[in-house]
Amino acid sequence: MGDAEMRHLRNIVEEQQGAICVLQEKLSLFGVQSQQQKSEVAALRDCLLSKGLLDFEGFQVHLHRHRFAAARAMHRLSLDAHLDMVLGDKAVALVVGHFAGRSAMQALTKVSTVISPPVQDILSSLCPGHMYVCGGFEGNLALNSVERLDPSTGVWEALPPMRASRQYTCAGVVSGMIYVCGGWGGPQPVRSVERFDPHSSQWESVSPMLVARWGASAGVVAGKLFVCGGLDESRQPLSSVECFDPGVGASRNRQKAGSPGSTQGGWDVVLPMSERRGWPAACVLGGWLYVCGGRDEQREPLNSAERLRPCVGAWEHLQPMAEQRAGAAAAAAGRKLYVCGGSFGSQMLNSAERFDPKACIWETLPLMAVRRAYLSAVAVSGVINVFGGSDGTNCLGSAEKFDPDHGLWSFTPTMSEKRSGAAAIAVLG
Question: Is the pTM of this model over 0.85?
């Protein structure tokens, strides 16, 4: 390289160095000005807050929106998908759940009936919890025993027994507490209700139902427990429905009829179902209470189904099931309703079907390994679990699960006791 070229290159480098120095001076001045602006904005904010002219939480919300809009513009991000569409992808939903945490996902279930079902699936996957089976009978003996299964270990654990022996009972979970309602308690059906606290492992009496019933089914909507149908003391099927709100004090009539030592909480009459149903299968999906099958006054099994949105207060007829079923069990997973087993006259069923509310159709599923009537069922982590029941000759202690992703039934750990007419529930976390 010649001297002339070297001088030219040196001049270019010096010019660039000069330009860099100018930029550094400007950046330094900008930094000072920026810091001054930040201080002034902070002082203005504090002044407005002290005068009561600015809501801090509202300010934070607007600030977040501005920053998010700036980030979207910088990265040219277009968001035309709604939250329920995003959470509809299970893989994405699980990632969201892991980052957001259980409390945030639980709060999401209260936001919308559309968002709630996929979020419930996320919650059950994030914190599977335990499956509880309460009461039932073996032979002619009504049971007060309770056991629970930890899905992560596959071990059944015996729990403190209920205060009363109950067969053909039903149950639901409200605010983490297990409520077991009615059933056949010996010579006649009972109105009594008791609840179990999984943290203290203690049972306590709750205000009794308005009607003594056995062979009923239950579901929880918006923090309220609904008990549907069943049989009265004359073995006649009922169309009546009643609702328990643990946050409401017992009414005057309820206080008169309440048992000694019972806790507060009120039962109210709900609009009856369109049909009488003994041994129906009930479940909650998407804010709707579904009741399927059962038997009518002529002891004929039903294939009809109906649902209730409590805030609307009117029962809606659904497409009938593929089979007539009494003593079946229902559970919900993946925004679909599953109805398993039951009886058709003297024949115990090993068939199962599921209802898609979006398409309003029933789909026949693979057969269970064992025929089961008067069984119980719960869904955990998107998997349907069925327990016990009767095969027509014997009470069963066996259990099975159905994996919707693979379309297969497989056996799960056998219960400690054989149980027919028991109630099963799942408690997360």
Answer: no
